[in-house]
Specification:
Radius of gyration: 27 Å
CATH architecture of the largest domain: 3-Layer(aba) Sandwich
CATH superfamily of the largest domain: Ribosomal protein L4/L1
Largest sheet: 6 strands, mixed
Number of domains: 2
Structural class: alpha/beta
CATH class of the largest domain: Alpha Beta
Distance between the termini: 13 Å
Helix content: 25-40%
Strand content: 5-15%
Oligomer: single chain
Length: 206
């Protein structure tokens, strides 16, 4: 069981916390992590690209010249793919790129990236994040105090003041235990968890 220091908003150590090996000490499965990232990016694709095939391009109903005797190659339509303005061969059409992963595979991938952050000292636990008002400047100071760069900050529960204070900070993202995903954790330079968030993540994913 890994033990991590707990800091306050000033960056001072105020205690320690034991992280569950079931979540933060799991076996890292790179294949499932890759699959989870590909799935998330694929599921986010709109899939609305479209080009016209030869049957959809307007015009070209008449044979451009007679079949024989002209010296040209035979042609049936000016909207065939080899003609300028013709249709596209195997044209892309709107489609759904999404695919599914098993629930256990998703959890294993999530545990893998959480374990990776913990093992590489990219995990910071804060006793609490509370703000009296929405103040971006103050939240920037908090991130500087705890030395969190390109941070993914996970709160135990919604806090409007904290979340609104962080929304305009570049390379900083907010999340809740039930909304964290493999892609965001991998992309984050530092994973910042409140003590409440740690407890909820261990409860949900253990």
């Amino acid at each position: 069981m890994a033990t991590v220091s707990v800091v306050n908003m000033e960056g001072k150590e105020v205690g320690t916390i034991d992280l569950s090996d079931a979540v933060f000490g799991a076996k890292i499965n790179e294949h499932l992590v890759h699959l989870a990232v590909v799935q998330q990016l694929a599921n986010n694709r709109q899939g609305t690209q479209k080009a016209k095939t030869r049957s959809e391009v307007s015009g070209g109903g008449r044979k451009p010249w007679r079949q024989k005797g002209t010296g040209h190659a035979r042609q049936g339509s000016t909207r065939a793919p080899q003609w300028t303005g013709g249709g596209v061969v195997f044209a892309p059409v709107p489609r759904d790129y999404s695919f599914k992963m098993n629930k256990k595979e998703k959890q294993a991938a999530l545990k893998s990236v959480l374990t990776d952050k913990a093992q590489n000292n990219k995990l910071i636990v804060v006793d609490e994040l509370k703000m009296d008002e929405i103040k971006t400047k103050k939240f920037v100071e908090v991130l500087a105090n705890i030395k969190a760069e390109k941070a993914l900050v996970v709160l135990g529960e919604k806090d409007k003041n904290v979340m609104c204070s962080a929304r305009n900070i570049e390379d900083t993202k907010m999340a809740l235990p039930e909304t964290i995903n493999v892609y965001d954790i991998l992309k984050a330079g530092t994973l910042v968890l409140t003590k409440d968030a740690v407890a909820k993540i261990e409860e949900v994913y253990a």
